Amino acid sequence: MLRDTAQRNPSLTVMNEATTEARQGPTALKLFAIFARIGLTSFGGGLSGWLLRTFVQDYRWLTEEEFLNGLAIAQALPGVNVANMAVWIGYRLRGSVGAFASLAGIILPPAIVIVLLAVVFTSLRRFDLTHVALTGAGAAAIGLSLVMGITAARRVPRRALPIAVMVATFVAVAFLRVPLIWVVLVGSPISVALAARTPR
């Protein structure tokens, strides 16, 4: 009976397949393809916003809280944030194989394209249109980063101390130009201590 219903309504079959895939999670190959697509279509930053939309909103493989926890870990650890995030998401969804596939997807295809573009750019940089296109891509990346920042800020508990830490971090980085290493070394223990004292 369910098979007959699915045959009469193909959209129901697609929905069932999407639900099954969301429950089971992605394969390592799919993780590679997703991260390769994101890496190849993101210009000038804003990758965190794409990752949030893809893994939380589109596929629903992660909750928003899980994603933001992973983003906090990726930003606190040494190295490139997006590479750290790829490893974290891949490991979370498919273990060690998923972590390797995600990291390879976010690094290898974009690296090949960057090398090719570097060769092409040397002959196109004299045209004004090239600089206009790069400026537009940069503006779009800033917008994506802003969306990610607003999303993370919305998750901050509406209490005085967490908001004070968030504002102090913003002021230290944006206005006082404090080196990030000192912001992390000072702000992280304070944030962890506050989170440990906060009742769930």
Order of helices and strands: HHHHHHHHH
**Low-pLDDT residue intervals, each spanning 5 or more residues:** 10-18
Helix content: over 70%
Using only C-alpha atoms, the radius of gyration works out to: 20 Å
Structural class: mainly alpha
| Beta-strand percentage range | under 5%
**Structural domain tally:** 2
* Ends apart, CA distance between termini: 45 Å
- Mean pLDDT, to the nearest integer, reads 82
Question: Main sheet, how many strands, which sense, barrel?
Answer: none
Work out the number of β strands: 0
The coarse silhouette is globular
Number of separate helices: 9
Write the layout of secondary structure elements.
Layout: H1 2-8, H2 10-24, H3 28-41, H4 47-58, H5 64-76, H6 81-124, H7 128-154, H8 160-174, H9 180-197
Helix pairs in contact: 1-2, 3-6, 4-7, 5-6, 8-9
Provide an overview of this structure.
It is built from 9 helices and no strands. With 200 residues, it is mainly alpha-helical. Helix 1 packs across helix 2 and helix 3 (28-41) crosses helix 6 (81-124). The longest helix has 44 residues, at 81-124. It is globular, with a radius of gyration of 20 Å. It starts with a helix and ends with a helix. The model is unreliable at 10-18 (pLDDT under 50).
Short description:
Helix content is 82%, strand content 0%. The protein has helices at 2-8, 10-24, 28-41, 47-58, 64-76, 81-124, 128-154, 160-174, 180-197.
